[in-house]
């Protein structure tokens, strides 16, 4: 099934797939959207088509080959869909009815749009991407293309929570002292990180109106895939698009 995501901007639609439904079995059981997850491609393709129908997408979604980096792709208004999935971890467009998708199974899916719904964006943000600054970089790209002072809205999706995201000290070091509060140790000395909290802090510091879903993927096996809980596993998709009339159809 898919859930409706509310960003509070007219003309912007967004959806989140869960693991319920679909055609996959085994460790990918459900509506796995991940081509590189180890699942059979015909099943993944069928799951993507199933999601497109159930979620009411206006066209096939544009997926990425995500690499836990900070590469960003802009899809210009007249650019056609590409063959395959380009290597990047974020994408944005002003083109109407052009759904953008990112995959996740513990990492953060982050969806964004401007306050008038003229540009939408989707980012995959694991700890490496967050530490590399993928969200501030994406915000800079968006603001360079929008009128000065235009507000931005963001949704930070389900991800592994600080209750289960056990990390080594190198992860905390990668973020530096500015994010020391996002890491804590339990009684046994194990360090845990708060990825949603870091993303929300980065977005809010940049003046973005942000909503954090808050659900932990590790804690909800009936709803979400979790790489930390059960690798190999499938992937959920977060999809965003702006409604409107495309000039290419004139």
Précis, in short:
The chain is of the alpha+beta class and about 250 residues long.
Describe the protein's architecture and organization.
This protein has 250 residues and is of the alpha+beta class. The protein has a single domain (2-159, 210-249), classed as CNF1/YfiH-like putative cysteine hydrolases, CATH 3.60.140. Helices cover 22% and strands 24% of the residues. It contains six helices and 13 strands. It has helices at residues 41-55, 127-131, 134-145, 169-175, 195-205, 227-230; strands spanning 2-4, 12-17, 72-75, 90-93, 100-104, 108-114, 120-125, 152-156, 166-167, 183-185, 191-193, 209-212, 236-242. The protein has a six-stranded mixed β-sheet with strand order 3-4-7-6-8-12.
Strand order of the largest sheet: 3-4-7-6-8-12
Distance between the termini: 34 Å
Q: Are there runs of 5+ residues with pLDDT below 50, and where?
A: 246-250
Structural class: alpha+beta
* Count of the separate structural domains: 1
CATH topology call: CNF1/YfiH-like putative cysteine hydrolases
- The fraction of residues assigned to DSSP E strands is 15-25%
CATH architecture assignment name: 4-Layer Sandwich
CATH class group: Alpha Beta
Per CATH, the superfamily is CNF1/YfiH-like putative cysteine hydrolases
Gross morphology: globular
Q: Over all CA atoms, what is the radius of gyration?
A: 17 Å
The major sheet is characterized as: 6 strands, mixed
Number of helical stretches of at least 4 residues:
6
Helix content: 10-25%
Q: What's the average pLDDT?
A: 94
Number of strands: 13
Helix and strand succession?
Answer: EEHEEEEEHHEEHEEHEHE
